[in-house]
Design goal:
10 helices; alpha/beta; TIM Barrel; 8 strands
């Protein structure tokens, strides 16, 4: 399996980073895309992806600015994200998009930073890693305007409606499903959504350390989510779609390798060290 979205730059992972990776590997996670969401996490994600490790999952990174931080967008940050996007270890631009649920940055600033990052993704010829919450209409309008020029688009941590999912599929996006589908209180609607996503558009992720799957047994003593818990997402999603866990793992792994160009990346990194 490939965890296409984990916030491993989060401070909660610092005390046991290597042990956390070992648990992920033991759980069948062969690669993790570490989410960059601000200046600091971009640098940490890139450093983790670049560091040489003999064991554990392959680590990759994204570089971007989350809409919560959109008010911090400036020319210097834009230039650094553009620079990082040229690195082979950085496989997507983002996390970027719109969040009108918390509105931690003014909406005009969110839209401006989102559009700017779409342009960076187009220039770098990298996919874009997207965030949207309670902003579907504006988000879709902006994304639709740029979609034909983007190499690919991943709607990360999808929790919205079936109608919203249909809109994203109509413009050829990939859909990332998290442990939200394991939450019977607020994720029940994702059972129906899961069935409408074509097998070649589906991706799985933990969004660790957030969204700990409620189906885990026994329940962890701590509330921190981690990539080792990705099988819980796989199993819930497979059950919703009427597929085996093995089928779903095979399909989503192939999709992740394709959308993030991980096979080409492995060849490129191999040639760089020869």
């Amino acid at each position: 399996m490939i965890d296409i979205g984990a916030n491993l730059a989060h401070e909660s992972f610092a005390p046991d980073f290597d042990a956390m990776l070992a648990r992920a590997s033991a759980a069948g996670v062969e690669a993790i895309v570490i989410t960059g969401s601000c200046a600091a996490s971009n640098e940490s994600a890139f450093a983790f992806a670049r560091a040489e490790r003999r064991e554990g999952p392959q680590l990759h990174a994204t570089a971007g600015l989350h809409p919560h931080h959109a008010a911090r967008w400036n020319a210097r940050l834009a230039a650094r994200i553009a620079e990082l996007a040229q690195m082979p270890e950085v496989v997507a631009v983002g996390e970027c998009g719109l969040d009108y649920f918390r509105d931690l940055s003014p909406r005009p600033a969110q839209r401006a930073a989102f559009i700017a990052q779409l342009s960076l993704a187009i220039a770098a010829k990298k996919p874009v890693f997207l965030h949207q919450r309670d902003a579907h209409a504006d988000f879709l309008a902006i994304l639709r305007e740029h979609r034909s020029s983007l190499r690919d688009a991943i709607v990360h941590c999808f929790t919205d409606s079936a109608a919203a999912c249909a809109d994203y599929l109509a413009i050829d996006c990939h859909i990332g499903i998290t442990g939200w589908i394991c939450d019977e209180r607020r994720g029940a609607h994702l059972t129906d959504v899961a069935r409408m996503i074509p097998a070649d558009r589906l991706l799985i992720e933990t969004d660790a350390p957030y969204l700990l799957p409620r189906t885990l047994r026994p329940k962890p003593k701590e509330r921190r989510n981690e990539p080792a818990f990705l099988p819980a997402v796989r199993d819930a999603l497979a059950a919703a779609r009427g597929e085996s866990a093995e089928q779903l793992a095979t399909a989503t792994t192939a999709n992740a390798k394709r959308v993030f160009a991980l096979k080409q990346l492995a060849k490129q990194l191999g040639s760089d060290t020869n």
